[in-house]
Write a structure and sequence with these properties.
The complex is a heterodimer of chains A (502) and B (309). Chain A has 502 residues and is of the alpha/beta class. Helix content of chain A is 32%, strand content 26%. The longest helix of chain A has 16 residues. Classes of the chains: A alpha/beta (502), B mainly alpha (309). At the A-B interface, α2 and α3 of A face α8 and α9 of B.
């Protein structure tokens, strides 16, 4: 029984982009069907078409054998199609129940949320989606929010569930829970469409996989007949070679945090007595679910956030209360979590590249900026860091995410820093972009810099780090050092990320 | 004696506070749906002129009240169009609405300047009050049915906003329009209705001033009440019941400014109701920031399908 069939679906975003180019494949009822591809491969576009958020330019979609024109999410819901978006679409100030019934006209006029509690509760029991129906969304963790999203879809009695990169924000344990829920749904004959670019997840959960590249379907098949390496090659279109980080480390400390306390944006303590050391030529990974003090940790080190108590030493020198500029000039590079902080979108690549050094020679002679020098320097870096398109005068906001990140890294690493603080440097990048950034970080490590790599992606940390610490509610937990990380390490770090002390 | 003073203040607070209450209730709904409308003062001015002129011509104050509300509502659609459909900057569009509204009211109202109404809305009659208990009699002295209606309306709007399905949908549009849209709520429709309702209420407030509170026309007669309504919306944490309390508090301050003139410089007293929102706003914005109270998350942000966050 075929639940959904795409027949040469094409979607263009004028003037140049063809997001889906003659896409055809079928999804069987009661299966988990993975949609694998790089950023920009057209996975999300295709699913937004199925969910009625976008209209195809050509081709047709068959739902349970019937051609359907789905022109809004409301119509998709009526066809039994539900979608869990990558960025949660929840109303933070409302309760779980209120979010579940949002948009439903069939609920009672008065006190609508009170009347659905028992059904929400029954659904969460049935599919292992444990969450307090009266909790407000802002009180929930990312994993719990996702459960609410799935509850929303199930409450609408959807039989086809689209999950857009659902594991990006989850701890390994939460991923396991999600997979259990997906299996429970499968057993009831529901269909899950699962968008991802993580190969091991495809291998673990998917019955069928459709690989997409540059808007086209490469192939649809069963993942049991393939290997992760083969999948990666199909997805990227060429062999992917991974960097191998240096494993020996000097004993000289570059960065030392001693009992550091700091406040978060809401005037609540975000860092509690954090002590941490980064040595020369070492990559220290900071694991943890977003919002456990990672942002504050990075900001405290580079001087953007005030230290309440404790001390920070750089090369043995106390830098606790120095300004961001002084700290940077001592050799600290910063790759911030939000790229909009690291770059000025309206300014050109060349201008962004000299943002650190604009006030010093050779770029500036007193009052004047020597634009020829800036231009030459920029062209040098564009070539060295492989920035595309290679145009100095292009406004940064027009670059792709991966290239914007390269601009930041070029600016920061070219100063030969002693310490690199990188917060989620590969968030949102595709496999090739991720590899390029990893290469640059390892290059900095090889040149002797200490790297503090803060990341929500545990696999990335296991690949690059010499040492991993976990941040949980502002505290450092479960520090460990390894030459080679194993599956058990992955599991136990995952537990610590969820707040379990080992 | 003490009770008498308290009831007297409450009585005056009700008289002064009603136009402010009406306008604030409207702005609470518009902002709860995610649209900041700084055009309240302009909509009130036009509502006042509309109410005055229609009452003057038809000799029927209720026609005037309805006309004022309708004028305010129609006028607010300019803001709705630019803020919702064109996704313009809501602060700028709202300010423009106030300038436009006061300007139009001043120009069109020139021929009516200084004229008074022979048929304003009358307070409760002596005969009616005589049949009421003494407490009610003291509170309702010189009060009209619209002021009482304002109280009923505040309670009703609170219930509607927090306890019913459409109220939940409306709040969702102001908190997270993309979530609401993805679930099949028509965000544009909800926002248009909310802004229109805000305009109707502002027009009603304006018309109340010109037809009941001070039944005469002079340009600028709303005296910044529209701006107070914008401040009070924040001060009330976007809650109709708190808006009721707040509006009466402001009303009492107006009254006190009048009563204490013999003791304190009247200039200072007259500025009290305007100083108060500034103090209140400083206080409230810090509190709101800390406790994440109230502020609709998507307030002031235009919604475009396909853009996340």
């Amino acid at each position: 029984m075929i639940d959904v069939a795409f027949h040469s679906v094409t979607k263009r975003f004028p003037p140049h982009i063809v997001a889906n180019d003659g896409v055809s494949f079928e999804i069987e009822r009661g299966t988990v069907h993975a949609l694998l591809g790089e950023n920009g491969a057209g996975k999300s576009t295709l699913m937004n078409i199925l969910y009625g958020l976008l209209q195809p330019d050509e081709g047709e979609i068959l739902v349970r054998g019937k051609p359907q024109k789905i022109s809004s999410p409301r119509e998709a819901i009526a066809l039994g199609i539900g979608m869990v978006h990558q960025h949660f679409r929840l109303v933070n100030t409302h309760t779980v129940c209120e979010n579940v019934i949002l948009g439903l006209r069939s609920t009672s006029f008065f006190f609508p949320a009170e009347k659905v509690r028992s059904r929400v509760h029954a659904l969460s029991e049935r599919y292992g989606l444990r969450v307090d129906p009266d909790a407000r969304i802002w009180q929930l963790s990312a994993g719990e929010k996702q459960k609410v999203e799935i509850l929303k879809v199930l409450y609408r009695e959807a039989s086809i569930l689209i999950l857009d990169e659902p594991t990006a924000v989850l701890t390994p344990q939460e991923v396991e829970e999600l997979f259990r829920t997906m299996r429970a749904m499968k057993e009831e004959g529901k269909t899950c469409i699962f968008i991802t670019h993580k190969l091991n997840e495809v291998m673990e959960i998917a019955d069928r996989v459709t690989v997409m590249r540059q808007g086209k379907v490469v192939d649809t098949f069963s993942p049991t007949s393939t290997s992760p390496e083969e999948l990666a090659e199909m997805m990227v279109g060429k062999k992917v070679v991974s960097v191998v980080p240096k494993r020996s480390v000097s004993s000289k400390a570059v960065l030392e945090l001693k009992g550091v306390w700091a406040m978060g944006d809401k005037d609540l303590p975000a860092l509690l007595d954090v002590s941490l050391t980064v040595r020369e030529g070492e990559i220290v990974g900071v694991a943890g679910v977003a919002g456990n003090g990672q942002k504050e940790l990075a900001e405290v080190i580079v001087g953007l956030r005030r230290v309440q108590r404790g001390h920070i030493f750089l090369d043995g020198r106390d830098v606790t209360l120095l300004s961001p500029r002084d700290i940077a000039s001592l050799g600290v590079a910063y790759v911030p979590e939000e790229r909009s902080i690291g770059l000025v979108g309206e300014m050109s690549v060349a201008e962004n590249l000299m943002l650190r050094g604009y006030a010093e020679p050779p770029f500036s002679q007193g009052f004047w900026v020597d634009w020829n020098k800036v231009e030459a320097y920029s062209e040098h870096l564009i070539a060295r860091y492989d920035i595309h398109p290679p145009l100095s005068e292009m406004p940064v906001r027009l670059l792709s995410g991966g290239n914007r990140q390269r601009v930041i890294l070029a600016r920061e690493l070219e100063r030969k820093p002693k310490l690199v603080v990188a917060a989620n440097p590969t968030a949102g990048l595709d496999v090739q972009g991720v590899e390029a950034i990893h290469e640059l970080l390892v290059r900095a490590q090889e040149e002797g810099a200490g790297v503090l790599l803060i990341s929500g992606d545990l696999d990335e940390l296991l690949k690059l780090s010499n040492r991993i610490v976990v941040l949980f509610r502002g505290e450092v937990m479960g520090e460990r050092e390894k030459v080679q990380w194993t599956e058990e390490d992955r599991h136990s770090i995952g537990l610590v990320m969820g707040g379990i002390r080992i | 004696m003490n009770l008498e003073i308290i009831l007297g203040v409450l009585n005056r607070a009700m008289a002064y506070g009603t136009p402010l209450l009406l306008a604030t209730l409207g702005e609470v709904y518009a902002e709860r749906a995610g649209v900041l409308n700084l055009g309240v003062e302009g909509m009130m001015m036009l509502g006042a002129l509309g109410g005055f002129v229609v009452t003057y011509l038809t000799a029927n104050p209720w026609m005037g009240i309805m006309a004022g509300a309708l004028v305010g509502g129609m006028f607010s659609l300019i803001h709705a169009f630019s803020a919702i459909t064109l996704r313009a900057n809501q602060t700028v569009s709202g300010l423009a609405l106030t300038l436009l509204g006061t300007g139009i009211a001043g120009t069109l109202g020139r021929n009516w300047e200084g004229k008074t109404l022979a048929t304003p809305i009358r307070p409760f009659s002596e005969a009616f009050l005589a049949r009421c208990p003494i407490l009610v009699r003291m509170i309702f002295k010189d009060i009209d049915v619209l002021a009482v209606g304002g109280v009923v309306l505040a309670v009703f709007l609170w219930f509607f906003l927090f306890k019913t399905r459409p109220g939940l949908f409306l709040r969702s549009c102001g908190e997270n329009p993309s979530a609401s849209d993805a679930l099949g709520i028509n965000v544009w429709q909800v926002r248009y209705l909310a802004v229109f309702f805000g305009g109707v209420m502002a027009g009603l407030g304006g018309a109340y001033i010109a037809v009941a509170y001070r039944p005469a026309w002079s340009s600028g007669m709303t005296q910044g009440v529209g701006w107070l309504a914008v401040a009070l919306t924040i001060f009330s944490f976007w809650n109709p019941l708190y808006a009721l309390v707040g509006a009466y508090l402001f009303g009492a301050l107006f009254h006190l400014a009048f009563r204490l003139q013999v003791l304190v410089a009247p200039e200072l007293l007259n500025s009290l109701p305007y100083l108060f929102p500034i103090v209140a706003l400083v206080f409230v914005s810090r509190l709101a920031f800390r406790k994440k109270l109230g502020v609709p998350e998507a307030l002031g942000k235009p919604y475009k399908r396909g853009e996340t966050g």
